[in-house]
Specification:
Blueprint (H helix, E strand, L loop, with lengths): L14 H10 L17 H8 L8 H7 L4 H13 L4 H14 L8 H4 L1 H8 L8 E6 L2 H8 L8 E6 L6 E7 H6 L7 H22 L2
Parallel strand pairs: 1-3
Antiparallel strand pairs: 2-3
Helix pairs in contact: 4-10, 5-7
Length: about 210
């Protein structure tokens, strides 16, 4: 018999709360509703819904068209080796404070996006990545095909944009109403979001 045992998943007894969180994903995020997050602005939330509408300077367009996946990965790894800046340290403190709270709502994924971007991707994603919840696996199948029906999240290229952009979709049905794995619903949400943000960084680099 092995001495190592896989830890049991955390208890998930509050089906009513999970349903409330699922229903809340249908509500557009607002700084005036849901979970408050310090520093989040309505403009940041709007950019997650209209990433491709940002007015880009011509010099930015030229520089980003020279990007590629290898360069994106190299920049990402090099950035992780640097000491965090003051703005990154402040973002880390805000994230840590919010992470330790038991009460939360799904709009927190959108409200934390800018700080997660600042800490892990050095501000390269906000304005170039759209983020939204999708209510059901069936809706994902209709929009993206059967391959993506049973994924917690998916990242796709955003077509017809001047600057390479990506679209992240989080599967609300699977995250909040699906069977529990080894993580809480909150851990599943943010683990999936960070995973898809990595894909978003690579996706926008691959479109050049």
């Amino acid at each position: 018999m092995s001495l190592w045992k896989r830890p049991l998943p955390p208890p998930d007894t509050d089906a009513r709360l999970n349903r409330q969180h699922y229903e809340a994903t249908r509500i557009p995020p607002s700084i005036h509703e849901g979970t408050p997050y310090p520093g989040c602005t309505q403009e940041e939330l709007r950019s997650l819904d209209h990433a491709h509408e940002r007015n880009w300077h011509k010099s930015w367009v030229k520089s980003y068209r020279r990007m590629n996946i290898q360069r994106a990965v190299a920049d990402f790894v090099a950035g992780l080796k640097r000491d965090p800046s003051e703005s990154q340290l402040a973002a880390i403190e805000r994230l840590k404070s919010e992470w330790n709270k038991e009460t939360w709502t799904p709009d927190l994924a959108m409200k934390c996006f800018a700080d997660l971007d600042r800490v892990y991707f050095f501000g390269q994603l906000l304005g170039r990545v759209r983020l939204r919840w999708k209510g059901s696996t069936e809706a994902l199948r209709r929009e993206l095909g059967p391959t993506y029906m049973y994924t917690y999240g998916v990242t796709m290229p955003e077509p017809r944009t001047v600057i390479p952009c990506a679209r992240i979709i989080l599967n609300a049905e699977l995250i909040f109403l699906g069977p529990m794995a080894d993580y809480s619903r909150k851990q599943e949400t943010f683990g999936t979001l960070l995973h898809e943000m990595v894909h978003g960084e690579l996706e926008k680099a691959a479109q050049v």
